[in-house]
Amino acid sequence: MPAKLSVNVNAIAMLRNRRDLPWPSVTGLGRIALAAGAHGLTVHPRPDQRHIRFSDVPEIRALIDDEFPKAEFNIEGYPSEDFLQLVEKHQPEQVTLVPDDPSQATSDHGWDFAGQASLLKPVVARLKKGGFRVSLFSDADPAAMSAARDTGADRIELFTGPYGACFDDSAKAAKELEKLAKTAEAALAAGLAVNAGHDLVVDNLPLLMKRIPKLAEVSIGHGLTADALEHGMAGTIRRYIKACGW
Ligand SMILES: CC(=O)[C@@H](O)[C@H](O)COP(=O)(O)O
Ligand SMILES: NCC(=O)COP(=O)(O)O
């Protein structure tokens, strides 16, 4: 089975937050994504709520429960007490823990599983006790997978940023892809399932899927949102030209 697609709606929320208006609608576009075949929705609320607001989370939960009960909700973030209470309240199917500093512009590295074991182990145990599937954001490092497994998590999410960033240079991209593939193999051998995300786009997905056929899920937001704008622009201009009376 190919990897499932979870659509990250952070970029849509960021656009909405430019004005005190309800559009673009995070749940409205989430509905379009799920109706078009996406398998789930991802949010990554950050402490300053600069894109996803905590108030978006119950609305997305309700959208999935009421209209797409087979879809999954994936919430990503740093395991602060606020974040843990948010996920416990709104019950996503998957929680992805990411080692982001609050001031970070976006995610740019995975966990140090051995060095941060004392933080991760009790948090993973608490989330597992709550019935959540737990995934941990991970750099491409096959040697770290036994420590990842020892945290008690179910999955890792491979940080694909370095692969996405050099995709124009096929030799560099092949090297990054090989590191990701070796990490996925080590994770699977350790009993962890493997997700992937960050800077994935239509052009760099097929090679990733081919080299790591056992990927369980990819979460994609920035590139997918940019594509939605580009591919929807011509039809939108036609509607506005018509509204102008042409
Ligand atoms: C963990 C990860 O790679 C994504 O969640 C990414 O961080 C999206 O977050 P932003 O939308 O804040 O860039
Ligand atoms: N976990 C990665 C994610 O949700 C989306 O990352 P990006 O496509 O916005 O870079």
UniProtKB/TrEMBL annotation:
Homooctamer; tetramer of dimers. The record marks E157 as: Transition state stabilizer. It is found in: Cytoplasm. The active site is at H44 (proton acceptor), E76 (proton acceptor), H198 (proton donor). Catalyzes the complicated ring closure reaction between the two acyclic compounds 1-deoxy-D-xylulose-5-phosphate (DXP) and 3-amino-2-oxopropyl phosphate (1-amino-acetone-3-phosphate or AAP) to form pyridoxine 5'-phosphate (PNP) and inorganic phosphate. Belongs to the PNP synthase family. HAMAP family: PdxJ (MF_00279). One of its GO terms (cellular component) is cytosol. Its EC number is 2.6.99.2. Keywords: Cytoplasm, Pyridoxine biosynthesis, Transferase. 3-amino-2-oxopropyl phosphate binds at N8, R19, D199, G221, H222. Its main location: cytoplasm. Pathway: Cofactor biosynthesis; pyridoxine 5'-phosphate biosynthesis; pyridoxine 5'-phosphate from D-erythrose 4-phosphate: step 5/5. It comes from Aminobacter anthyllidis. NCBIfam families: pdxJ, PRK05265.1-4. It comes from the Bacteria. This is Pyridoxine 5'-phosphate synthase. It catalyses: 3-amino-2-oxopropyl phosphate + 1-deoxy-D-xylulose 5-phosphate = pyridoxine 5'-phosphate + phosphate + 2 H2O + H(+). Pfam families: PdxJ. 1-deoxy-D-xylulose 5-phosphate binds at R46, H51, T106. One of its GO terms (biological process) is pyridoxine biosynthetic process.
